[in-house]
């Protein structure tokens, strides 16, 4: 038997649809608007701008994709910037010490191991000591700030570097293609684990209602640790992608990443309280919107010193429009 | 008839040549957009540099956009440069050598020229010379004072100290030093060694001796933070500080905090504002010497970039980019300070600049066919306090 929907129901379902998806619509509309402005104002440097946007956004996208697991639990990690800084310095030191492709592989593996360890620490300590996760990440932030300073002091210089030819193809086209491949591969992997595996299901469950999730028989501590480790893996990969761009690191490398990740996820429609409405697309949509917005304001001739001010205004407007009142918006 | 035709053709040729000459003589420089990436967004030098550049805008048909770099984050610097390139600049004047390899790659990719100002590009010069200085898109840099391989600041500091001693009732006989780390300012470490050697030579033939405390790496090398108050416990009995590092921001506040600003004289670099109240015979008389680079030294990278944008070059332009030492204003007395206070550096008024827009246009290869690179370099050597007083 089939049922027919009458026109009145259709009319009432459209506002309901809008109500259900207002955050997604706002996020995608923001991306569409910035993309249109990008095409209009790109001018003769459109191709250059496109690759600049790709290179700027690639590390942030990869780290933001990993952060989806953490943010979907309603948690956050403010140590990510300092982690990126220390990982970049360590990677360069190992590459310079070992040399060649072997150095690159060893450097990346060492940093990956450290990132997984930090992820596990971040998740586990917060649970065992019953601390808000932001407190453990604050501890890591201070720890890594000191480590970054001491590592650079030991070099006696302001900046250390490796030839970028060791890290990426010399040809710009091949380099850009590699970035696209990495982004797509990470996005697919994160989507799979977030949508179709227990990891995503449980992290969203923890974000929606941790008590109910635990009472359903889910070992929440274990999945929190795994979520943070997944994030750690993305931080390590994101650091490598960032190094591909500059080939160098210093005392300030990674500064601002924690805030950038949070802004990008919020712009992409991620609820800061986590839960079932968390989406992988938030990382992609939000980061591209954020980077494109900077590029648009630049090409539109906005004073470069005013761009942060304009971005802050836009950000606060989006927060006001999209903030979910139920349960609050601040992380637990 | 044949003769008439020939005459007409000749007349037309003459007219065409005359028109060509007239149009060439009145040719406007190509419109250029130049990005200037500063090391900070405030301060006397930044305000004055902006005022100077904006005053040149019309005569040189150039538009400026500004941004600020960081001393510690290469990725942030590359992003800032990419933003300038996205904004459509034809050239970039950069005040920092951090992330330069990636930056020059961006410039090559976008066909944008890069040049330096108030920066010795020492890391690039010593470690990436081929990549940076031999790039066709890197045009050279005007250093903030002397290059590490061309340092004279140690001699200048002793000269200022002796000039003070000659006029002071109580000459200074015991001094200590302060420098920034060598990785950032290698010329300061060289200058400190030079000063110690010069004093030793002076002591051989003069009385009373001047005692110079050895540099203490823990206390005397300022990591871009204010001097520690324990400095005065370490250097007891000093009556002068020779600060190669920017003393107004990093030394003077600690002197005030320790209550020694009335007893110890400061010889330093970098004018931040406020020194004039305690300079020479005024106020506490703490400041007895101050050295700053003229903001007009930005003319060097500006002219080199504009030449490229206009598709011209100097006949004696070197094949490889150079780093040029700039002369500095060395303010040693009340009279010097008075002259300095009438410079664009202090007033922020373009009318007080050492060069008018027409003079700068005359320095370019497109504004003056006889202009040379040697002449441009020579101008940088003539921006002293004596030149200012003229």
What does this structure look like?
Chain A is an all-alpha fold. Chain A has a domain at 58-258. In chain A, 75% of the residues lie in helices and 2% in strands. Chain A has 11 helices and 2 strands; from the N terminus they run H-H-H-H-H-E-H-H-H-E-H-H-H. In chain A, helix 2 packs antiparallel against helix 8 (220-246), helix 3 (80-98) runs antiparallel to helix 4 (100-128) and helix 6 (172-196) runs parallel beside helix 7 (198-215). The N and C termini of chain A lie far apart (48 Å). The model of chain A is unreliable at 328-332 (pLDDT under 50). Chain B has 2 domains: 32-148 and 294-330 and 356-389, Response regulator (Rossmann fold), CATH 3.40.50.2300; 152-292, Response regulator (Rossmann fold). In chain B, 43% of the residues lie in helices and 16% in strands. In chain B, strand 6 (174-178), helix 8 and strand 7 (211-212) form a beta-alpha-beta unit. At the A-B interface, helix 2, helix 8, strand 2 and helix 10 of A face strand 2, helix 3 and helix 4 of B.
What topology does this entry show?
The complex is a heterodimer of chains A (332) and B (390).
Chain A: H1 7-41, H2 46-71, H3 80-98, H4 100-128, H5 133-155, E1 159-161, H6 172-196, H7 198-215, H8 220-246, E2 248-250, H9 257-267, H10 281-299, H11 307-322
Antiparallel strand pairs in A: 1-2
Helix pairs in contact in A: 1-10, 2-6, 2-8, 2-9, 2-10, 3-4, 3-5, 3-8, 4-5, 4-8, 6-7, 7-8, 9-10, 10-11
Chain B: H1 2-25, E1 32-38, H2 44-60, E2 62-68, H3 74-86, E3 91-94, H4 100-110, E4 113-117, H5 122-127, H6 129-132, E5 138-142, H7 153-167, E6 174-178, H8 186-205, E7 211-212, H9 231-234, E8 240-246, H10 247-250, H11 252-258, E9 265-269, E10 287-293, H12 299-309, E11 322-324, E12 328-331, H13 334-340, H14 344-347, H15 357-363, H16 373-380, H17 385-389
Parallel strand pairs in B: 1-2, 1-3, 3-4, 4-5, 5-11, 6-7, 6-8, 8-9, 9-10
Antiparallel strand pairs in B: 10-12
Helix pairs in contact in B: 2-15, 3-4, 7-8
């Amino acid at each position: 038997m089939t049922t027919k929907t009458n026109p009145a129901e259709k009319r009432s379902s459209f506002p309901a649809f809008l109500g259900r998806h207002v955050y997604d619509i706002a996020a995608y509309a923001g991306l569409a608007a910035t993309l249109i402005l990008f095409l209009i104002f790109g001018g003769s440097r459109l191709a250059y701008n496109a690759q600049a946007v790709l290179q700027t956004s690639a590390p942030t996208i990869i780290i933001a994709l990993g952060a989806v697991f953490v943010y979907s639990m309603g948690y956050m990690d403010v140590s990510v910037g300092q982690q990126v800084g220390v990982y970049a310095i360590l990677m360069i030191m190992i590459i310079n010490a070992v040399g060649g492709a072997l150095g690159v592989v060893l450097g990346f593996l060492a940093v990956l191991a450290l990132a997984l360890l930090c992820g596990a620490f971040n998740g586990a300590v917060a649970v065992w000591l019953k601390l808000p996760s932001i407190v453990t990440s604050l501890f890591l932030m201070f720890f890594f700030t000191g480590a970054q300073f001491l590592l650079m002091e030991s070099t006696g210089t302001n900046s250390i570097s490796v030839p970028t030819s060791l890290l990426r193809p010399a040809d710009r086209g091949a380099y850009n293609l590699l970035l696209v491949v990495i982004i797509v591969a990470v996005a697919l992997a994160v989507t799979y684990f977030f949508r179709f595996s227990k990891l995503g299901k449980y992290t969203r469950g923890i974000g929606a209602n941790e008590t109910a999730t635990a009472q359903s028989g889910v070992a929440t501590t274990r999945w929190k640790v795994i979520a943070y480790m997944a994030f750690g893996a993305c931080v390590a990969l994101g650091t490598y992608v960032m190094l591909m761009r500059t080939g160098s690191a210093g005392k300030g490398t990674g500064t601002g990443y924690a805030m950038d990740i949070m802004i990008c996820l919020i712009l992409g429609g991620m609820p800061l309280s986590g839960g079932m409405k968390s989406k992988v697309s938030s990382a992609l949509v939000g980061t591209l919107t954020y980077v494109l917005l900077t590029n648009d304001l630049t090409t539109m001739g906005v004073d470069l010193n005013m761009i942060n001010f304009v971005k802050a205004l836009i950000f606060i407007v989006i927060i006001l429009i999209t903030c979910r009142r139920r349960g609050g918006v601040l992380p637990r | 008839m044949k003769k008439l035709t020939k005459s007409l053709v000749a007349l037309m040729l003459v007219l065409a040549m005359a028109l060509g000459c007239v149009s060439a003589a009145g040719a406007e420089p190509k419109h250029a957009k130049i990005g200037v990436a500063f090391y900070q967004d405030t301060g006397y030098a930044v305000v004055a540099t902006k005022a100077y550049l904006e005053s040149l805008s019309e005569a040189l048909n150039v538009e400026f956009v500004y941004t600020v770099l960081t001393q510690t984050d290469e990725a942030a610097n590359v992003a800032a440069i990419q933003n300038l390139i996205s904004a459509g600049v034809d050239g970039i004047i950069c005040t920092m050598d951090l992330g330069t390899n990636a930056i020059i790659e961006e410039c090559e990719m976008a066909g944008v020229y890069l040049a330096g100002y108030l920066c010795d590009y020492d890391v690039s010069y010593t470690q990436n010379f081929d990549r940076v200085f031999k790039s066709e898109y890197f045009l050279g840099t005007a250093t903030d004072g002397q290059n590490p391989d061309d340092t004279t600041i140690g001699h200048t500091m002793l000269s200022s100290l002796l000039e003070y001693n000659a006029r002071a009732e109580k000459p200074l006989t015991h001094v200590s030093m302060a420098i920034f780390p060598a990785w950032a300012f290698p010329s300061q470490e060289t200058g400190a060694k030079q000063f110690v050697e010069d004093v030793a030579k002076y002591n051989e033939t003069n009385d009373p001796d001047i005692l110079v405390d050895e540099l203490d790496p823990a206390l005397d090398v300022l990591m871009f933070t204010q001097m520690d108050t324990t400095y005065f416990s370490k250097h007891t009995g000093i009556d002068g500080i020779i600060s190669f590092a920017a003393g107004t921001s990093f030394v003077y506040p600690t002197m005030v905090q320790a209550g020694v600003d009335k007893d110890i004289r400061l010889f330093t670099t970098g004018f931040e504002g406020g020194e004039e109240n305690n300079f020479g015979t005024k106020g506490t008389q703490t400041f007895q010497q101050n050295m700053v680079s003229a903001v007009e030294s930005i003319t060097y990278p500006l002219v080199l970039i504009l030449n490229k944008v206009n598709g011209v070059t100097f006949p004696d332009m070197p094949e490889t980019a150079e780093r040029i030492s700039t002369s500095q204003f060395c303010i040693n007395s009340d009279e010097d300070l008075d002259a300095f206070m009438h410079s664009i550096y202090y007033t922020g008024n373009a009318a007080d600049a050492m060069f008018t827009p027409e003079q700068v246009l005359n320095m370019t290869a497109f504004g003056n066919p006889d202009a040379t690179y040697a002449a441009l370099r020579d101008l940088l050597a003539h921006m002293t306090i004596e030149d200012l007083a003229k």
